[in-house]
């Protein structure tokens, strides 16, 4: 999620012209199941590509990247922090402001010992739980179990994540997935 400068005549990434219906990133063709969502997020500067101009949609998303997406996606300003909340996130880390804001807003949490583990991948359960914090609807345990029972692996959702994952699913979080009947909560989330 480090911004990059396009020097070629045909821009890609957030600088690409979508008026012709093209895709933002060369590695995300229009036929890719999430291409429209990725393009919308890129146009709104919620996600960006890598310095090589690629998006890498199947790459695991790190906690630092996810903190940045959450802060931008919930339209928050990153903390202009000169200090770091975590021993493993230096104050000059590219994601320090977003990490601090995501933690301050209770979207993400650190680990014992004052660590954030910014390069660790985010599980799908963690991602869906964080996303649910921006969804305003009430779901109780009974309703959550009803929603989760519609998925072949709904019973594998950790107890701490049942209600927030059900909220995310009800809001359509996984509706366009290639395997719409699977949550895969313990699998690492991809970009």
- Beta-strand residue fraction: under 5%
SS-based structural class?
mainly alpha
Q: Runs with pLDDT <50, length 5+?
A: 1-21
- The total of helices stands at 6
Radius of gyration: 17 Å
From the spread of the alpha carbons, the general shape counts as globular
The major sheet is characterized as: none
The overall pLDDT average reads 87
Distance between the termini: 10 Å
Compute the number of strand runs: 0
Question: What is the helix content?
Answer: 25-40%
Secondary-structure element order, as H and E? Answer: HHHHHH
Q: What are the salient characteristics of this protein?
A:
about 190 residues, mainly alpha, 6 helices
Compact overview of the structure:
The chain is mainly α and 191 residues long.
Lay out the secondary structure.
Blueprint: H1 35-43, H2 63-73, H3 96-104, H4 124-132, H5 141-148, H6 162-170
Helix pairs in contact: 2-3, 4-6, 5-6
Description:
- 29% of the residues lie in helices and 0% in strands.
- It is mostly helical.
